[in-house]
Recover the amino acids of this structure.
């Protein structure tokens, strides 16, 4: 039997009837074909997850009554993902998968090679909300406006720096010398939980940016393997490694 659909809301839950807005009513009534007597799960980080029973459902509105609380509320957890914005489709995919992998916050950073610094934050927030509804998490990751990398790093502590380059000038991606150790082998020995993960832009960091990052005592430089990954793929791999060592995949 298919579980009842989940809908995120910032409204107070468990305190009497709930009124669906136009978009919620359209989705639940017209798309999912819910009707009076069906159940829907409403959730947010503050109130947790509640089962509601639909009392009425029309094209633009509906009402539901609380039945029971299934989960308590929780504080946001997981790492902060610092990423250089890429093409729109790939950035949206990154936001979706990062939400599924438990990221707490998404912070776009502007680097020398960032090729896109204008984002539709409202669109990314919608994608993150839909991903949270699908993957059963209670919290929605916060998504910030793009800021310069140096400014963002001022506010973080220890962070994983996904460094795919070597030190050989003139060689593709810096050659083989000076590469960071594999994350899968290094992370198990890291004792301080890195609060953030830094993913570079298409084309990677400039030599100057990389030199500054490698000199930063807060940075834990790791490689994600022998292949050069697309930025959105790198984010997925790095978040999986983080969760497997420090988070809810451990």
């Amino acid at each position: 039997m298919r579980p009842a659909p989940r809908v995120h809301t910032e409204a107070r839950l468990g305190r009497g009837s709930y009124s669906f807005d136009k978009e919620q009513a359209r989705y639940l009534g017209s798309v999912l074909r819910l009707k009076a007597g069906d159940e829907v799960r409403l959730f947010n980080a503050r109130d947790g997850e509640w089962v509601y029973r639909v009392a009425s459902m029309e094209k633009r509105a509906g009402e539901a009554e609380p039945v029971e609380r299934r989960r308590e509320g929780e504080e946001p957890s997981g790492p902060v993902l610092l990423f250089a914005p890429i093409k729109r489709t790939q950035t949206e995919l990154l936001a979706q998968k990062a939400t599924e992998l438990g990221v707490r916050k998404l912070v776009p950073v502007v680097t020398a090679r960032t090729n896109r610094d204008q984002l539709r934050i409202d669109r990314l927030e919608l994608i993150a909300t839909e991903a949270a509804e699908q993957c059963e998490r209670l919290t929605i990751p916060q998504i910030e406006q793009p800021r310069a990398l140096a400014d963002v790093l001022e506010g973080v502590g220890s962070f994983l720096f996904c460094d795919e380059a070597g030190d050989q000038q003139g060689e593709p991606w810096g050659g083989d010398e000076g590469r960071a150790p594999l994350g899968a082998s290094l992370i198990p020995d890291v004792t301080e939980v890195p609060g953030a993960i830094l993913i570079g832009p298409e084309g990677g960091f400039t030599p100057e940016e990389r030199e500054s990052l490698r000199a930063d005592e807060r940075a834990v430089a790791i490689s994600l393997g022998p292949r050069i990954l697309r930025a959105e793929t790198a984010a997925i791999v790095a978040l999986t490694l983080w969760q497997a060592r420090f988070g809810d995949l451990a």
In short: The chain has a mean pLDDT of 92. The radius of gyration is 21 Å. The chain is about 30% helix and 25% strand. Helices lie at 22-31, 88-100, 121-135, 149-153, 183-186, 207-215, 231-246.
